[in-house]
Design brief:
Residues 187-262 form the Autophagy protein ATG5 UblB domain. This protein is an alpha+beta fold and 263 residues long. The chain has nine helices and ten strands.
């Protein structure tokens, strides 16, 4: 089990300053709305942190749009709510960091061909739990999540939703432990994204054929044999000698996947 609690806590406490601005075409009042500034957890999802922001802008839009599903874009690129916030920032701003991160808010013209609908937080929970179960299948053949009780699943979700580190990790530590397989995961739950958002997901072993621990340099050579690349997660470029097992235990997002950007 990963026992470096300080690293886990530092990752959990990561925040991003965000500036939300209402789309100019949707403003129906003479008075312009002030931007809405907020610090958001990197590990969370936008639908969990935007309630106050939504109320801030509702009085400036037409009543016919007030019940519409809200969505956001960055430089014209709709943001997929089912990706963690920190990953979205790394994907779109990793090579050119900006703070605060300025996003445009919309209440009309929902891009249904790009974004999944998210009418309420129950949809976020369902997506999150489905992804955690997928990660558990890759790591432990699904044995951990299936052995948990419903109250454990609820505690895991509420810990994330309410930003409660101790509540979340009391349950999630079971998913982060190695069980059998010579004290290693069967596979590393990892998703690697190109700059255009294209995702690569393959079965990645934490060990080499000779039983030694696989490091990031070896993963890069395996996936990108013809070009040198660097990989980024949580705003940092990953050192090439970092073992995949350690990375998975310490820098996975709450869905238990490593979300990594090519840079």
């Amino acid at each position: 089990m990963a026992n470096d609690r300080e690293v886990l806590r530092e990752i959990w406490d990561g925040k991003l300053p965000v500036c939300f601005q209402l789309d100019q075409e949707e403003i129906m009042e003479i008075q312009q709305p002030d931007p809405f500034y907020v610090m958001v957890p990197r590990l969370s999802y936008f639908p969990l942190v935007i309630d106050k922001m939504k109320r801030h802008f509702l009085r400036y839009i037409s009543q016919e749009n007030a019940d519409n599903e809200m969505w956001m874009d960055y430089n014209g690129q709709p943001l997929k709510w089912h990706y963690p916030i920190g990953f979205l920032y790394d994907l779109y701003c990793g090579n050119d960091p900006q703070t605060p991160w300025t996003l445009t808010v919309h209440f009309s013209k929902f891009p249904g061909n790009i974004l999944l609908h998210c009418p309420n937080k129950d949809v976020v929970e369902a997506h999150y739990m489905s992804t955690v179960k997928e990660a558990d299948v890759l790591k432990h053949r699904g044995q951990i999540m299936s052995a948990m009780q419903k109250k454990d699943h609820n505690q895991l979700w509420l810990g994330l939703q309410n930003d409660k580190f101790d509540q979340f990790w009391a349950i999630n530590r079971r998913l982060m432990e190695s069980h059998g397989d010579n004290d290693g995961f069967k596979h590393i739950p990892i998703r690697i994204y190109a700059e255009d958002g294209t995702c690569t997901q393959r079965l990645i072993s934490p060990k080499n054929i000779d039983g030694s621990r696989k490091i990031i340099q070896q993963l890069i050579t395996e996936l990108y044999p013809e070009k040198p690349v660097k990989l980024r997660t949580h705003g940092i470029t990953i050192p090439l000698d970092t073992p995949l097992q350690w990375l998975s235990e310490h820098l996975s997002y709450p869905d238990n996947f490593l979300h990594i950007c090519v840079c």
